[in-house]
Predict the 3D structure of the following.
Amino acid sequence: MQHFLPFPRRREVLAVGTMGLLLASLRAGAADAGFPAKPIRLIIPFTPGGGTDFVARAISQPLTERWKQPFVIDNRAGAGGSIGMEELARSKPDGYTWGIGSAATITINPHVYAQKFNTLTDLVPVVHMAEAPNVLVVHPSLPVRSLADLIAYAKEQKGKLSYASNGVGTSAHLSGFMLAQQAGFEAIHIPYKGMVGANDLLGGRVGLMFGTIPSFMQHIKAGTLRAIAVSSLERASSMPDVPTIAEQGFPGFSTSSWSGIFMPKGTPGDIVAKTSRDVNAILAMPQLQEMFVREGLNLKTKGTPEEFAKFLKSEWERWRGIVKASGVTAT
């Protein structure tokens, strides 16, 4: 038999429940209003100078002005970015430690490295900031000016041509692997720690490299590197004269890098929401948009943490298939 509370008592219970929700809301609002009250540590899982580093530093200054708190940049490179992301996952979930995640660190590395944390469950997606295609660049000494030229040259070299990347299993590595596999040529992969490989590319010690447009833009403009193709399905607005890999004979070829802010699991929801709102507001600033577009980045200015989480799950599955097909593993 069911027992029902007398009507007055039931009204009491409802009143208590409503009061509890109200108090919880007030506490959340108080935490939101008091955040941030001290400097924020921003972990970048790569060496300085890359696309991820560029995005992090670009948003930190206007956020410092908005929040009146400094950002302490902490470059923690290694294992394709896994070291920095593990550091983030182990950090105190109080909103004062952030990490800049990317396609490599969040959706590729879990299928390459034996990690001690789970990128989908141990990190909280906060805001999806930007996406950028990879650009394929070569040293000017190579006698190639198109993808067809590069493929023909690579086949002539019979496995002697080398390509650099910013680590095993990164988007740059897998982009090179996929191109070589689909085009039918062999090339020696030389992984570096972060963007250090660009120095050997500039010195002519390796022939080519995939990387984000911000990483190579100044060198392309200076003529010290030559852009052959971009890896997105559509041409990059910052270099409209550079054709895509897809339109040069490989329809459907698409690899891109993206960047977003993450916090450790357990970070209060009101802090996550405030950060998402304020970073989106920063990204919507015309001067920042102009700077990002100039560097070949597509900004995301309206996404929610929930939408970002959905995107991550989709990308996680897509890259799992690519990594499995490639047979790439970290040694």
Q: What stands out?
A: Strands lie at 40-44, 71-75, 97-102, 123-138, 162-165, 188-191, 208-212, 226-230, 256-264, 298-299. The chain has two domains: 33-132+257-326, 133-248. Confidence is low (pLDDT under 50) at residues 1-31. The two ends are 65 Å apart (CA to CA).
